[in-house]
Every structure is written in structure tokens, then in C-alpha cells.
Design a protein that fits this description.
Elements: H1 16-23, E1 32-40, E2 43-48, E3 52-57, E4 71-77, E5 80-85, E6 101-107, E7 116-122, E8 124-132, E9 136-137, E10 147-153, E11 156-161, H2 163-169
Parallel strand pairs: 2-11, 5-7
Antiparallel strand pairs: 1-2, 1-8, 3-6, 4-5, 6-7, 9-10, 10-11
């Protein structure tokens, strides 16, 4: 056993400051972020968990006439109408092969604007990962303009989605 490792018992009346002191200095630990990783088509994508409201099973959709191919439809989420986009349409998803999940993301409104919710079609939700800044790569493929980088997880890469860019590339209806 390592000679530098010692357990120090805390008294029964220890408070949170005593516990933090026993855990050691915080500056030794790299800051962590959490990301929700999912697959859409052949690619893995991720969003910061703070941008993800929830993950749903495939909802009942209302199709919109004359909508672009990536706009699958709209659905009702507890009284809120949410547009659903399929970002895998750009890579030629086979017609009739529907995704299984929806990742509902929320873009915080600025000033007096409301939050904007958007559903992203997902074939598989892989999980939530806590990562450090060393796991994030700032370069993204040039042909994926809605992504701002890549995330390393489980010896794989996931494209990091920027919701503002996503709404520019795949503009949905304003509801």
C-alpha cells in the first residue's frame, strides 16, 4: 500500500467545511463537464447536459406540408410544440427507417426572448459522460457546420453540437 495514503476519521459533529478539508485541495482536480452522447445515422453527436431537457421515446408526430426533408414534424411536449429535426438526413438516412428516440434540447433565450426547444432524432442514446477539457478537441470536420469540436469517450469520438449553429443550418418553424 502507498505510504502517502492515510485515512483520517471525521468526528460525528464534523461539518461540510471539515469534509471539504478532508477531501483535499480542489485545484488538483481538473474541472469536469457532462455531455449526453447519442447516435444519429452513422455519426455520434453530443450536447452539454445543461442544454438537454430530456430524452424521449419516439413521439406521435404531426407532419408539416412543404417542410424541408430534415424537419420530420412537430410534437406536443406537455403543452409545448417542439419541432423535430433529423440531422442524419444529410448523410442519406434510408426512408422508412425511423429513429427510436428524441433528444429535446433547449437554447436559452436572451433578454425577453423565450427558450427555444428543438427535438433531435436519435437512433441510440449512448449515455452521459463526465469529461475534462483534455477530452475535448476544438477542431470539427468542415463539412459539419453545426458542430464546434469533438469529444473523446470510450476510445471513440462524438461531434459536439452548437445549438445556435444547428438552428442556422437546420432552421425549424418558429413556434
Amino acid at each position: 500500500m502507498n505510504e502517502d495514503f492515510h485515512l483520517t476519521p471525521l468526528s460525528a459533529d464534523a461539518d461540510s467545511a471539515d469534509l471539504l478539508e478532508a477531501l483535499g485541495p480542489m485545484e488538483d482536480r481538473p474541472p469536469e463537464s457532462q455531455y449526453c452522447v447519442f447516435r444519429s445515422g452513422r455519426e455520434r453527436f453530443c450536447l452539454p447536459v445543461l442544454d438537454v431537457e430530456e430524452v424521449l421515446e419516439w413521439p406521435v408526430l404531426t407532419k408539416l406540408p412543404l417542410a424541408p426533408a430534415y424537419l420530420v414534424g412537430i410534437f406536443n411536449l406537455r403543452g409545448i410544440i417542439v419541432p423535430l429535426i433529423d440531422i442524419a438526413m444529410t448523410e442519406g438516412r434510408r426512408p422508412g427507417l425511423l429513429p427510436k428516440h428524441v433528444v429535446v434540447a433547449s437554447l436559452r433565450g436572451e433578454g425577453q426572448h423565450d427558450d427555444v426547444r428543438i427535438g433531435i432524432a436519435s437512433d441510440e442514446v449512448i449515455g452521459t459522460y463526465s469529461v475534462t477539457s483534455e477530452d475535448l478537441l476544438e477542431q470539427a470536420p468542415e463539412n459539419v457546420p453545426h458542430c464546434i469540436g469533438m469529444l473523446r469517450h470510450d476510445d471513440r469520438l462524438a461531434l459536439v453540437i452548437d445549438l445556435r449553429r444547428l438552428l442556422e443550418v437546420f432552421p425549424g418553424p418558429s413556434i
